[in-house]
Amino acid sequence: MNILNFINAFFSDSAHWQGYDGIPTRLGEHVQYTLEALAIAAAIGLPVGLVTGHYGRGGNALAFIAVAGRAVPTFGLLVLMTLSLGFGLINVMIPLVVLAVPPILVTSYEAMRSVDPAPVDAARGMGMHEVEVLFRVELPVALPLILGGLRSAAIQIVSTATIAAYVSLGGLGRYIVDGLYQRNYEKVVGGAALVALMALATLAVFWGITRLTVSRGVLRSN
Amino acid sequence: MIRIDSVTKRYPDGTVAVDRLSLEIPDRSITVLVGPSGCGKTTTLRMINRMVEPSEGTILIDGKDSRQQSVNTLRRSMGYVIQNAGLFQHRTIVDNIATVPRMLGWGKEKARARARELMERVGLDGSLAKRYPYQLSGGQQQRVGVARALAADPPVLLMDEPFSAVDPIVRKGLQDELLRIQDELGKTIVFVTHDIDEAVKIGTMVAVMRTGGKLAQYAPPAELLSNPADAFVEDFLGTDRGIRRLSFFPSAGLRLLTAPVVAVDATAEQIAARGTSEAPYLLVTDVDGRPLGWIEPGDLTAGGVDATRLVSYGRPFLAGTDSLRAALDCAVLSPTGWAVGVDAEGRVAGVVSQQAIGEAIRGAHAEGRTDAQVAR
User: Fold this and answer.
1) Residue B376: which pLDDT band, with cuts at 50, 70 and 90?
2) Could A126 and B134 be called an inter-chain contact, meaning their C-beta atoms sit closer than 8 Å?
3) Chain A CB within 8 Å of residue B70 CB
4) Chain B residues with CB inside 8 Å of A127's CB?
5) SS3 assignment, position B60
6) Are B86 and A122 a contacting pair at CB < 8 A?
7) Which parts of B143-254 are beta strand (E)?
8) B373 has a pLDDT exceeding 60
9) Weakest-pLDDT range from A177-191, B158-172, B275-289
10) Bigger pLDDT: B8 vs A9
C-alpha cells in the first residue's frame, strides 16, 4: 500500500526527528497552538455557558451565536485576519477560537439545563448560596457533558490548527503544506498521520480527565 | 411557633396561589397541609423558608418576622425534604447527609460521624454510607433525604410530599418511621401531602386547603373526620370517613370473651365445659395459646384436632393497642364474623363478635369524640 509505505518512510527517516522542522518541534508547536486556542475558547465559552445555563436564560441567543460561529469559514477568516493584521499567531488564534467556542458554549449551557432540578431545589432549600449551588451541585453533575463539549472543541482545534502553516507558522500543518508545495507526498501523509494520532491522543486525554474528575455516582447513574 | 398571618401569594400574571391564609403551627407537632393539586399547599410551605416570597402578610417564627434574618440563615434553621429526595448524585450517602453541617463549618470527621448517627436514626444500614444515591431504592433515598434534613438538628422540618413517589408498602414504613423519629426528637414539622389518609395518619393538626389557596378547615384529624366544616371537606375526606374515624377509638373497651377459647391439648371434660351460647364456634389454640382456627363444637375431640375441620380466623388484632377500626376489620375478614384479640406475644386474649364491636362503636360515639381527641 502506497500510504503505508509513505508513513513508514516518513517516520523511519531520522532527519524527520530532529531540528526545527523535526517531529518533536512541530508536534510541540501543534500542542501549544491547541492548548492556547482551547484555553481562550474555554475562558469565553465556559463562564457564559455555565451562568446562562444556571439561570436558564439566553438559550436562544446562544443558539444563534453557535450557528453563526459554525457558519464562519475558518480558512476565510484566517486569510482575512492576515490581510488586515499582517502575519502573527493572533491571526491563527482568532479563527481557532471562533471554531471552538460554539461547542463549548452550547454543551455547557445544555449540560447545566439538563441537571435534575430536584437536588438544586433541595440545595437552595437548605440554604446554599447561588455560587455554591452552581459549583457544588450543578457543575459536578453537568461535568461529563461539559467535558464532552471541550473534547469536541479540542479535536476540531487539533485538526484545524494545520492552517497555521499557511501563514508561515509552525505546527504539524507545516508537513502538509510544505509537502504539497514540494510534491513530497511522503511528508504530506506523514503530517496527516501525526494529526490523526494527535486527535486520538486528545480523545484519550479527555477520557482520562473524565475518569479522574467525574464522581462515580454521576458516571454510573447516567 | 410558626404563625402565618393573612399571607397572600399573587404571581405577576395575576394568579392567586394562596389567599389571605392564616395558620398557627404548634411547636413539636406535625401539622399537615392537605388539598387537591393547585390548592397552594406547596406554595404555603415554600413561603415558610422563603423559597417563595409572600406578596402580602407576614410569617412569624417564634414571634419574629421571617424577613428579619437573611434567607440562608433562615433556611439553615429548617430541614427541607422534597419529593424524590433530591439527593446529590455525585456525593456518597454519608456526604449527602453531612451537607448542612459542612455548610455550617463543621469539620469533615465530625460531620460524617453525625451523618452516620443519623443513618441509624432513620433506619439505614451503616454499610450504605459509602454508596452513591443511584445504588439505593426509592424508599432508602427518601430516608437519606430525611436524615440530611435532620443533620444540623434544626428545630423545624419542612416536608413537601416526601413519600408520594414510593409504593404504598414503603410509604407506610416511612410514615411509621417518621412518627417514631418524631416521638424521639419532637420537631416542629410542616408536612404537605395530597393524600388525606396520610394526613389523618400522621397529622397532629390537619389544614385542608381548597383550590384558590383558601383554608377550608384546620382541625385535629379525629375532629376533621367527625365534623367536616363543609361539603368540600366532606367530599375530600371520601366516602369511608366513618370507618376511618374508628382509627381514633381504642379497642381497650371491647369485652373479650374467653369462654369459646380452647387449647388443642384439652381433655374431653375441658372441651365440654367450654363454649357459650353467644358463640357458635370454638377457637382452638396451640399449647402456647396462639390461635389455630375456629371449629364446630361437635368436631372437636380430646387428643388432637382434625386440621381439615378448622376454619381460618383471618387476622388477629392487638387487644387494647389496636383501634376499633382494626378490630372491626378483623371481624369482617374472619369467615365466622368473630375477631381474635391477641397480646403482644400473639397469645389469644379473647374473641369478640361483629355485633359486640358494633355496640362498642355506638358506645364510643355516645361518649363523644372528645375523649379520643384528648388521647391524641
Assistant:
1) very low
2) no
3) no
4) 71-76, 100, 103
5) strand
6) yes
7) 156-160, 188-193, 205-210, 214-219
8) no
9) B275-289
10) B8
Sign of CA dihedral A198, A203, A206, A212: negative
Beta-carbon contacts of residue B36 (< 8 Å; ≥ 6 apart): B194, B210, B211, B236
Match 370454638 to its residue by C-alpha cell: B282
Burial class (CB in 10 A: 0-12, 13-18, 19+), B126: exposed
Closest residue in A to B46 (Cα) is A125
Q: B374 pLDDT exceeds 50?
A: no
Which residues partner with A28 through β-bridges? none
A84–chain B nearest CA distance, Å: 49
Residues of B in contact with A137 (CB under 8 A): 88
At B164-212, the pLDDT tens digits run 989 999 999 999 999 999 999 999 999 999 999 999 999 999 999 999 9
- Nearest chain B residue to A129 by CA distance is B72
Question: DSSP states of B252-268 as a string?
Answer: GG---B-TTEEETT--H
Closest-approach residue (CA) in chain B for A117: B86
List of domains in chain A: 24-171 (1.10.3720.10)
Q: Do B72 and A122 touch (CB under 8 A)?
A: no
* Cβ(B332)–Cβ(B354) below 8 Å: yes
Which positions in chain A touch B91 (Cβ < 8 Å)? 215, 217
Q: Which of B75, B84, B90 to mutate to test the interface with A (most CBs of A within 10 A)?
A: B90
- Residues listed for chain A: 222
Provide the β-strand partners of residue B21: B7
Contacts of A100 (CB under 8 A, 6+ apart): A37, A38, A41, A45, A153, A154, A156, A157
Q: How many CA atoms lie within 13 A of B41 on its CB side?
A: 27
Question: Model confidence over A138-161: pLDDT tens digits?
Answer: 999 999 999 999 999 999 999 999
- CB of B86 within 8 Å of any CB in chain A? yes
Comparing CA positions, the residue from B121, B329, B126, B367 lying closest to residue B253 is B367
Residue B12: count other Cβ atoms within 10 Å of its Cβ.
6
Looking at residue B176, its amino acid is D
Give the one of A118, A136, A214 whose C-beta lies nearest to B84's C-beta. A118
- Return left, alpha or beta for B341; rule: phi > 0 is left, psi -120 to 50 is alpha, else beta: beta
B171 Cβ under 8 Å from any chain A Cβ: no
- List the grid coordinates of B168: 404504598
Give the ipTM.
Answer: 0.86
* Contact (CB, 8 A) for A109 and A62: yes
Q: For residues B340 and B347, is the Cβ–Cβ distance under 8 A?
A: no
pLDDT digits (tens, 9 = 90+) for A16-68: 888 888 999 999 999 999 999 999 999 999 999 999 999 988 888 888 888 88
For chain B, which domains are there? 2-248 (3.40.50.300), 252-365 (3.10.580.10)
Q: Taking the complete model, does pTM exceed 0.95, yes or no?
A: no
